[in-house]
Structure formats: structure tokens, C-alpha cells
Design brief:
There is one protein chain. The protein has about 160 residues and is an alpha+beta fold. Helices cover about 50% and strands about 15% of the residues. It is built from 5 helices and 7 strands. The strands form 2 sheets. Strands 1, 2, 5, 6 and 7 form a 5-stranded mixed sheet that branches. Strands 3-4 form a two-stranded antiparallel ribbon. Helix 1 runs parallel beside helix 3. The N terminus is likely disordered.
């Protein structure tokens, strides 16, 4: 019962911010799909930034809220390197070791079972901050995200 109340409350609270962010995001609402994690990571590290990867699931309302209200604005406003990997997708990509794989295989390799999950990568494709699993409480998601970004940036030195 508590979980259902929290879930409904999250969805109802997330409608208003999503609407207001739509003006800022100018219809973007999407993150680039990962095709080459090795190149994405190299680009991020050249900017002295972690590579942020959002694991998403098609049709997931929580994923949409996290993407549109938090990650897309960070990418657009701060230029934060962020890519998306889709659960269950057979889209091809290369991993950090330049090996061919699919989005779904990468999700399984990372042992991710819940969407959205946000990961923070540094040199050699190593996770450098704690994963953000699930959508958290909307009032605090931004604070948790900022905390993880600070951890990741500190780990980069």
C-alpha cells in the first residue's frame, strides 16, 4: 500500500515539472542512444567529466521523468556527457573495450534489473560513483543526482 501511494504520488507530482521543463527542453525529451561507449567515454574524459549513462526501458514513466526533468536539462545547460542504453533493445553498440554488444546485453552485464538506473563512469569504464537505481522521491532526486555527480567528478581528480 505504501509503495503504491508513493508511486502514484510520484507520478502525479512529476506531471507539472515535466510540463514546465518541456518549454526549456524544446521538445528534446530524449538522450542520444549509446553506440560506442569507448568513444563516449573518451569524449567525456577529454572534457574532464564523467560519462553518465541512463539505463531506460521503453514506456517507463519514471524513466521519462528522470530523462526530461533532470538529465536532458543537465546535458543542454551544462554540456554533461550523457547517453542512454535501453533495456531489452537489440540495438548494436560497442562497450568500453571496443567489443560489439547490444544494449540489452550491456544492461545484463551491468546486472541492472530496474529502470531507470543512472551510472557514472570514469577511466577504463570503471564506475566512479554509486548508481542511482529507481526514481527516488521527486523532491530529492536532483539533490541525489548532484551528490553523485560531485562524487564522480572528485574521483576523476
Amino acid at each position: 500500500m505504501d509503495f503504491e501511494f508513493t508511486r502514484r504520488r510520484f507520478l502525479s507530482l512529476s506531471v507539472l515539472p515535466a510540463t514546465s521543463m518541456a518549454v526549456h527542453a524544446a521538445g528534446a525529451g530524449a538522450l542520444p542512444l549509446a553506440t560506442s561507449l569507448d568513444k563516449d567515454l573518451a569524449s567525456a574524459l577529454s572534457q574532464r567529466q564523467p560519462l553518465v549513462v541512463m539505463v531506460s526501458l521503453e514506456g517507463c514513466p519514471f524513466c521519462k521523468v528522470v530523462r526530461e526533468n533532470y538529465l536532458v536539462p543537465l546535458k543542454e545547460q551544462e554540456g554533461l556527457p550523457i547517453v542512454q542504453v535501453d533495456m531489452r533493445s537489440q540495438q548494436e553498440m560497442t562497450d568500453f573495450q571496443v567489443q560489439k554488444t547490444t544494449h540489452d546485453a550491456m544492461v545484463k552485464a551491468w546486472r541492472i534489473r530496474l529502470a531507470p538506473t543512472v551510472l557514472f563512469f570514469g577511466a577504463n569504464g570503471r564506475e566512479i560513483a554509486r548508481r542511482m537505481v529507481g526514481s527516488y522521491i521527486p523532491d530529492f532526486y536532483g539533490a541525489y543526482l548532484n551528490e553523485r555527480l560531485q562524487q564522480a567528478r572528485a574521483a576523476l581528480g
